Amino acid sequence: MNDHGVVTAKDTIRFERLLPGPIERVWAYLTESEKRGKWLASGPMELKPGGKAEFRFDHSSLSPTKEPVPERYKAKTGGVTMQIRVLECDPPRRLVMTWLGGTKEGTMRQDSEVTFELEPAGDKVRLRVIHRRLADRALLLGVAGGWHTHLAILADNLEGRVPRPFWSTHEKHNRDYEERLKGV
User: Fold this and answer.
1) Domain 6-180 belongs to what topology?
2) Which residues, at least 6 apart from 121, have a Cβ–Cβ distance to it below 8 Å?
3) Alpha helices, DSSP H only, in the chain?
4) Closest CA to 100 of 111, 116, 113
5) Which segment of the chain is annotated as a signal peptide (predicted)?
6) CB contact at 8 A, 119 and 126
7) Cα–Cα distance between 126 and 50 in angstroms, integer?
8) What is the rounded CA–CA span in Å between residue 69 and residue 117?
9) pLDDT tens digits, residue range 99-110?
10) Are 106 and 129 in contact (CB under 8 A)?
11) What's the rounded Cα separation, in Å, for the pair 99 and 27?
């Protein structure tokens, strides 16, 4: 299985990972604030269609390895909060959310949509993450590097390893996706 995200449409990227199970354990890492906060973002989530969630991203806290925040992300030092709306919830197999766009530099950004699909694969779990409605190439590239990094940290947690540092891993993946997705 290739770890790299695959662009399936001009505004969509899909990732697939094979993770240690059981499926309920991986589901908990998607839906429970404390566990989700170890690899992505903490915060409350109403697990029902129409449910609200608030994700607090604090990338520097995802690993015990401390490193400086890259200059272009200095505004995110200390964390960023995002409002989420749950569209579908079918435990422990499928979770679909709208990530509310808000504003960026004074202009409205459209909402994007994230789907998590889980399927048992022996003693492992196949996780698919599909991020749709990405407004432009720059956002697609940023999301690609971000998901690749977050999913690597999720795997570290599930496999009992010390999570890798977020920022240096993210910068490496950003450079990699810039090269891989030149024609997109």
Assistant:
1) Alpha-D-Glucose-1,6-Bisphosphate; Chain A, domain 4 (3.30.530)
2) 18, 21
3) 23-31, 33-36, 137-158, 166-180
4) 111
5) none
6) yes
7) 26
8) 31
9) 876 544 444 457
10) no
11) 19
Residue 182's pLDDT band (cuts 50, 70, 90): confident
Give the pLDDT confidence score for residue 130 in this predicted structure.
98
pTM as predicted: 0.93
Q: What is the mean pLDDT of the chain?
A: 92
From 181, 142, 183, 171, select the one nearest 6 (Cα to Cα): 181
| Average pLDDT over every residue of 140-162 | 96
SS3 labels along 72-95: HHHHHCCCEEEEEEEEEEECCCEE
- Residues written for the chain: 184
Task: Kindly give, in sequence order, each residue whose CB lies less than 8 Å from that of residue 112, ignoring residues fewer than 6 positions away.
Answer: 98, 99, 101, 131, 132, 133, 134, 135, 139, 143
Angle (nearest 5°) at CA 131 between 127 and 136: 155
